[in-house]
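Quiz preparation item.
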């Protein structure tokens, strides 16, 4: 009962590397070469980058700072224009709340609103709307007070209802006044006295002055300024004296596509609000029709639900000369740096490539994946070429001998680092025997080559099941196979592995027989015997020709259990699996098995109870 091999395995788990040294970790050679190149590249690149970045930043900041002054001035004028509306509206509301003026006194209230309107030249109309939708409106152009009843106007009802739910004043939506052809922005101040909602004060502000503000910002190197909403509505544009016609209640402001400005159209598709994020102002370079532009955008908040964006832009050609010199310096420095690093890497590759091939080939050999791709190429370095030639010879020999050694053993051979001999000892193991029932009659009509092919296919099928469960195929005897599972500190479930293997083999044989019957071939009937117990495990044989195998009564008993299948198998049964009580006790008694009774085994003293899988 022996299996040929050249060296006994140790523990099935991968042992630690016993080499001692100051460094317990290992760095790949490629990493070392790259690290060396990085020590040269990084400092040089950082110095080059900082120099170029500083030069560009100074250039941009100089022009950006000048442009930002113009933009800040325009934004300040917008705030100076709109903030007094809020202040004056608060004054009027406070007068109503404190009783200094009474909205029910139409003449007195009209005079009061007319006085408030006089101090706000930017306000076109000032109106008070009560809860019954009675409107008192003061118009700047006529100076007249109008008393209107808009009880049937749904838009007015919406304004009053919305104001009633607001605790504080707020800026409303843009609206278009058809009689004047102007777009207005309105400020709404809810009026309450003693907690009771009386109505809403509405200040209508014309947007005409915004165009003047952005035009004032578009001077010096800046030629274009604008104010738009986050949804792409244009409030003012320096390049257009009057915004395009066609405004209506549904569209009180023109949109970006209606303005003949390719830069603004590009900005609209990019999403300016995503630019700003949490910042109040941002400057970026964008490409428009192949030309770069510097764009500076600042947010204006507090004038409605939409965020306003005030901005300006100018072509980068204004600083093209300075940037060109900086860019040429950056390109020249980068090329020199890249060439230096490439030269260092090529030199390092020429040194490390043979070493890496050698390391990769030995690793693949250890991992049992060494093939033609694992062969070491020739090297111009004599010592490395000699080592590669030797390793290629070892790989070739390995391919010839590996088929004679069980896969499980070779795995353990290649994993272990300890080269000391393994002592032969007694261990708890589980042994399995398989046999093809009626093989003689099955093979009688086959040619020798057909018999060999049939057995190879059969053993491939069942050996894979053994190796899947970590077992060792000890040998093939004619049409029989012997395999075993060892107990160890790492894995004491040898009986369970053997039992699972028996189930797997039975399933595979049944599936294969379905195929054979479909092809008109005679099914293969297999007997399996499994037994657990103590046996001698280790090296047996003469010096120079050792076998790692198992011997003892457990092996003989397993073979006798398998032989009982001749009498216990049912007619037409593809697979009969017989397991001794010693194995069942380790696996568990709750399995779908039943006892076939106590049997005396030939050539063995005593009897054992044998179970058969249902």
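Solution:
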């Amino acid at each position: 009962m022996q299996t040929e091999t050249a060296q006994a395995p140790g523990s099935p788990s991968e042992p630690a590397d016993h080499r001692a040294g100051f460094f317990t970790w290992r760095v790949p050679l490629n990493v070392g070469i790259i690290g060396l190149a990085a020590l040269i590249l990084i400092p040089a690149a950082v110095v080059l980058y900082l120099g170029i970045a500083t030069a560009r930043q100074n250039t941009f900041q100089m022009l950006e700072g000048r442009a930002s002054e113009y933009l800040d001035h325009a934004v300040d004028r917008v705030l100076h224009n709109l903030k007094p509306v809020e202040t004056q509206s608060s004054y009027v509301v406070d007068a109503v709340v404190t009783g200094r003026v009474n909205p029910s006194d139409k003449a007195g209230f009209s005079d009061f609103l007319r006085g408030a309107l006089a101090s706000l030249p930017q306000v076109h109309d000032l109106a008070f709307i009560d809860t019954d939708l009675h409107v008192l409106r003061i118009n700047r152009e006529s100076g007249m007070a109008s008393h209107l009843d808009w009880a049937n106007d749904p838009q007015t009802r919406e304004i009053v209802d919305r104001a009633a739910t607001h605790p504080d004043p707020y800026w409303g939506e843009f609206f278009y006044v058809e009689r004047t052809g102007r777009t207005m922005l309105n400020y709404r101040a809810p009026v309450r006295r003693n907690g009771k909602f009386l109505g809403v004060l509405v200040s209508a502000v014309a947007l005409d002055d915004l165009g003047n503000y952005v035009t004032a910002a578009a001077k010096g190197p800046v030629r274009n300024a604008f104010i738009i909403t986050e949804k792409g509505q244009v409030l003012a544009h320096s390049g257009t004296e009057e915004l395009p016609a066609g405004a209506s209640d549904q569209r009180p402001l023109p949109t970006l596509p209606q303005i003949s400005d390719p830069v603004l159209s590009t900005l609209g598709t990019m999403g300016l609000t995503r630019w700003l994020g949490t910042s109040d102002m941002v400057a970026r370079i964008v490409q428009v029709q192949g030309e770069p532009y510097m764009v500076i955008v600042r947010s204006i908040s507090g004038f409605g639900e939409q965020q306003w964006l005030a901005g300006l832009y100018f072509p980068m050609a204004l600083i093209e000369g300075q940037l060109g010199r900086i860019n040429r310096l950056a390109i020249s420095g980068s090329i020199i740096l890249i060439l230096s690093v490439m030269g260092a890497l090529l030199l390092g590759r020429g040194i490390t490539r043979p070493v890496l091939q050698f390391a990769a080939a030995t690793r693949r050999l250890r991992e049992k994946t060494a093939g033609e791709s694992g062969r070491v190429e020739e090297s111009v370095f004599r010592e490395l070429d000699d080592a590669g030639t030797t390793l290629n010879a070892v790989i070739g020999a390995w391919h010839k001998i590996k088929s004679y050694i069980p896969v499980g053993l070779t795995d353990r051979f290649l994993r272990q680092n300890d080269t000391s001999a393994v002592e032969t000892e007694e261990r708890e193991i589980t042994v399995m025997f398989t046999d093809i029932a009626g093989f003689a009659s099955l093979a009688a009509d086959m040619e020798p080559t057909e018999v060999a092919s049939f057995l190879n296919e059969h053993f491939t099928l069942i050996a894979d099941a053994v190796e899947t469960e970590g077992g060792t195929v000890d040998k093939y005897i004619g049409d029989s196979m012997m395999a075993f599972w060892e107990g160890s500190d790492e894995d004491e479930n040898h009986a369970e592995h053997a039992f699972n293997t028996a189930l797997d083999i039975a399933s595979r044989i049944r599936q294969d027989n379905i195929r054979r019957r479909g092809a008109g071939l005679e099914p293969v009937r297999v007997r399996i015997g499994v037994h657990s117990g103590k046996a001698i495990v280790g090296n047996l044989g003469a010096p120079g020709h050792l076998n790692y195998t198992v011997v003892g009564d457990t092996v003989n008993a397993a073979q006798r259990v398998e032989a009982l299948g001749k009498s216990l198998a049912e007619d037409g049964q593809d697979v009969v699996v017989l397991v001794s009580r010693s194995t069942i006790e380790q696996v568990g008694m709750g399995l779908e098995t039943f006892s076939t009774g106590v049997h005396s085994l030939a050539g063995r003293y005593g009897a054992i109870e044998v179970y058969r899988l249902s």
